[in-house]
């Protein structure tokens, strides 16, 4: 990199760290994205209203406060040039607080939690945990309201059992999510009233809220340790929720600087980690409905989709130096060796030779790698095949190589993030795809 490129990459990484630290839940991630879009001149749309959209303008719409579509309506005719689509997801595996979570054992107040997604459970022990999410309540007029809450401080932990009491822990240990994972809140003579805790915290942060009664909540635990630029030579980005907020951020950064000539779209769906089958998930109607409202006539819309391409971005598995036999010998992506094109013959990824070829063409001199899982191992999936199935758009699945996927703290290469951003920039500006 030149000195200017390195300075730009460092600034990009710092903005990424700030975004990751803000985005402690999907709700907070969408809020952080919306604030950046509004600052860049994007107009908020409400799905309950009629829309008046025109070329040359920029828009965004949220659903469930946890999924978002941002759209640049380009000056070039989208029926001729199509739409450049970027896709990612806002959710990450975590521990979610149960509806009636108050536990009390041996003088300790605890929270009942359930596992969301494919969580790597062991790293959750002995961490400083906070709580955040969305709270629904009635106001004095008995109207339903919602607000986001973030405790922003360590309020819980899950202590490990001492090795003296479990001598075989380093040989073999299974974790029971029901009995081993309830976080410890503190000493108490009786269960802590969790809804009252939420009410007090909301009013402390937002004193003007009109709260008559807490009705329900969606609250997650998260690690208080912030994102960091680490390694002897600063090679790595370490953070919670890199899968897949890293892709959300990279896509957002590219959309914010799109020149407005081509029509561009970023969709970040919730619930990918649990199958995407929800009103705001990739298997739901959100993206299809958006396209139908912008182009209501079916024939032009089908022409437009045929001329469009989606890059579905979701982190890839980097080859672990301690476990190299977990990768195919010819397909072990290295951190900081470039973004990864994800291939699977059974359509767990949506990439094909045409769309992966386009991604390589966009990269030009920038490094690109390929991931194929071992033939004797199962393969994960992304929103890519689901979105391709739902709307029929040509799709390539890509991602930044990562260690520790689904851990409470994941690791990516700091250079790969900026390289992916550069490729996205070229994609959004490309006249034909």
From TrEMBL:
InterPro entries for this protein: Peptidase_M18, Peptidase_M18_dom2
| Superkingdom to which the source organism belongs | Bacteria
User: Gene3D superfamilies, per this entry?
Assistant: Aminopeptidase i, Domain 2, Zn peptidases
What is a single cellular component term in the Gene Ontology annotation?
Answer: cytoplasm
User: Keywords for this entry?
Assistant: Aminopeptidase, Hydrolase, Metal-binding, Metalloprotease, Protease, Zinc
Q: Which GO terms describe its molecular function?
A: aminopeptidase activity; metallopeptidase activity; zinc ion binding
Q: Which cofactor does it need?
A: Zn(2+)
The EC designation for this entry is 3.4.11.-
Kindly give the Pfam families that the UniProt entry links to this protein. Peptidase_M18 (PF02127)
A Gene Ontology biological process annotation? Answer: proteolysis
Q: Which family does it belong to?
A: Belongs to the peptidase M18 family.
Q: What is this protein called?
A: M18 family aminopeptidase
